[in-house]
Amino acid sequence: MECDRCPTFTLCPDGLSGWVGGKQASIVLCIAKYLTASQPDRYDLDMFDPRPHRLRRFHHSAQPNSVTQSSAPPSRTAPQVFEDLRFIRDTMERSAAFTAVSGWGEVLLGITAGAAAWLAARQPSSFPWLRVWLAEGLLAAAIGLLACTWKANRRGLPLFSGPARKVALGLAPPLVAGAFLTFLLFRAGLQSALPATWLLLYGAGIMTGGAFSVPIVPVMGLCFMLLGGLAVLGPAAWGNWFLAAGFGGLHIIFGLLIARRHGG
Predict the structure, then answer these.
(1) Using DSSP, how many helices (H) and how many strands (E) does the chain show?
(2) Which has the closest alpha carbon to 98: 178, 142, 155, 137?
(3) Residue 194 burial (CB count, 10 A)
(4) Which residues neighbour 264 within 8 Å (Cβ) at sequence distance 6 or greater?
(5) Residue 222, pLDDT score
(6) What is the CA 195 to chain-centroid distance, rounded?
(7) Of the four, 133, 144, 162, 229, which is 20 to 30 A from 116 by CA?
(8) How far apart are CA 7 and CA 18, in angstroms?
(9) Gap between the Cα atoms of 192 and 117, Å rounded
(10) φ and ψ at 63, to 5 degrees?
(11) Does the residue 59 lie in any domain?
(12) How does 108-134 read in b/e, with b if 16+ C-beta sit within 10 Å?
């Protein structure tokens, strides 16, 4: 019987035999190619594993030790490290704000200023009136310094840091100028100009020094200067009450705001 696919071969039970080029060749063919039944179109089992797999990420290989060692910075000595830390600390202190302004100290300043205004209004002449306000100025300076020290120690803040020095340098020149102008105006018999001068110079010092403190402090200085301007334009007999409104009332109002917003 001849094979339908290869007519030159004869089908036998063990394979196919035929003559090719005068030589007998015995070729055994895989019967699965033509004689077995066709395989099903799909497999019974899924080829893919349904379990989730994590994608692997390939990292760059590390550089050789020689390159790493050559690019590493040289080791620093202890004095150099301390010098760097000191520089960082000084930079942070200069950039920070002075937050040791005591609100309760301002309130106490306002109370003593109100008492001084009441006492000065009962003096018979200008010289005792001046002594009362000068004593109040010295007492206010002591109260302010002690109140700032108390708040700084309670909250762990540096009292003599960079911002504190800037506040002092901004506040001191107007106060020193006010002290000399007080002597000059009193000697010239211009006692009526003292309330306006004190309010204006104190407000200017608070504004310039408060620029390195919490934002509400320069606002207080501006209010003092506005009140000083009113004292310049107002009657001379109202000078003592302008001082009471400024050193008494403004200190109490802004002291309560500072104590509420900035922790004492």
Answers:
(1) 9, 3
(2) 155
(3) 22
(4) 102, 103, 104, 151, 154, 155
(5) 92
(6) 40
(7) 229
(8) 10
(9) 15
(10) -70, 160
(11) no
(12) bbbebbbebbeebeeeeeeeebbebbe
The answer to whether the CB of 192 falls within 8 A of the CB of 239 is: yes
Question: What is the reported pLDDT for 189?
Answer: 87
Structure tokens at 97: 């704000």
E-only strand ranges, the chain: 9-11, 16-20, 23-27
The structural domain count of the chain equals 2
Same domain? For 106 and 25 the reply is no
Residue 143 CB-density burial (10 A; 0-12 exposed, 13-18 middle, 19+ buried): middle
pLDDT digits (tens, 9 = 90+) for 197-256: 999 999 999 888 877 777 888 899 899 999 999 999 988 889 999 999 999 999 999 989
| Confidence (pLDDT) at 180 | 93
pLDDT at 32: 47
Question: What is the pLDDT at residue 56?
Answer: 54
Q: Which amino acid is at 134?
A: L
Residue 56 lies in a domain: no
> What does the pLDDT read at residue 245?
92
Where in the sequence is the domain holding 11, given as residue range(s)? 1-35
